[in-house]
Amino acid sequence: MRSEKEKMLSGDLYIANDPELREDFKKAKELVREFNHTTEYQLDERQRIIKSLFKKSGKGDYLEPPFYTDYGCNTEVGDNFYANYECIILDIANVKIGNNVFFGPRVGLYTAGHPIDAVIRGEAFEYGKPITIGNDVWVGGNVVINPGVTIGNNVVIGSGAIVTKDIPDNVIAVGNPCKVLREINDEDKKYWELEKKRYYEN
């Protein structure tokens, strides 16, 4: 018979009040508390904690305290990941974040779900669906990314969006529910290259 942890990571119903899961949860809480009490002068210590907390971390990752997660050990992040204040990652299911991903403040990744049926929900059953974010993604402040969502490469998610469905590559997406506003195009590149040129001229 499968363990509750195996059921959880496979996306099936599970019960969180399980000794193995409680131990993982407790370990994460200890590391998160330790991380959130570091100072701006303890960057090496922060890196050490994140490497202990996450399943995989990359080079140049930076998370601004406070940060919160359920398990941590189900989260993978690539190189140059940046998370601003009060990032929340509920990694009941696997979370995969690519390279060069920026989070504004108060971004939430919620893989956790609960049954719609009140009786089953009241019996403490839960489930989770994975979240995947590609490379070169900027997620604005106060964005919520719901269970089972995949966000492609080179994407901008506007502030306050509630992402309930997959977002393709190379787009700006906004709103509640989050929808594609437009594609990112050559005009965007030209505009920002000109802005960079002006910067160096001043």
TrEMBL record:
<keyword id="KW-0677">Repeat</keyword>
<comment type="similarity">
    <text>Belongs to the transferase hexapeptide repeat family.</text>
</comment>
<dbReference type="InterPro" id="IPR018357">
    <property type="entry name" value="Hexapep_transf_CS"/>
</dbReference>
<feature type="domain" description="Maltose/galactoside acetyltransferase">
    <location>
        <begin position="5"/>
        <end position="59"/>
    </location>
</feature>
<dbReference type="InterPro" id="IPR024688">
    <property type="entry name" value="Mac_dom"/>
</dbReference>
<dbReference type="Pfam" id="PF00132">
    <property type="entry name" value="Hexapep"/>
</dbReference>
<dbReference type="InterPro" id="IPR011004">
    <property type="entry name" value="Trimer_LpxA-like_sf"/>
</dbReference>
<dbReference type="GO" id="GO:0008870">
    <property type="term" value="F:galactoside O-acetyltransferase activity"/>
</dbReference>
<dbReference type="Pfam" id="PF12464">
    <property type="entry name" value="Mac"/>
</dbReference>
<keyword id="KW-0012">Acyltransferase</keyword>
<keyword id="KW-0808">Transferase</keyword>
<dbReference type="InterPro" id="IPR001451">
    <property type="entry name" value="Hexapep"/>
</dbReference>
<protein>
    <recommendedName>
        <fullName>Acetyltransferase</fullName>
        <ecNumber>2.3.1.-</ecNumber>
    </recommendedName>
</protein>
<dbReference type="InterPro" id="IPR039369">
    <property type="entry name" value="LacA-like"/>
</dbReference>
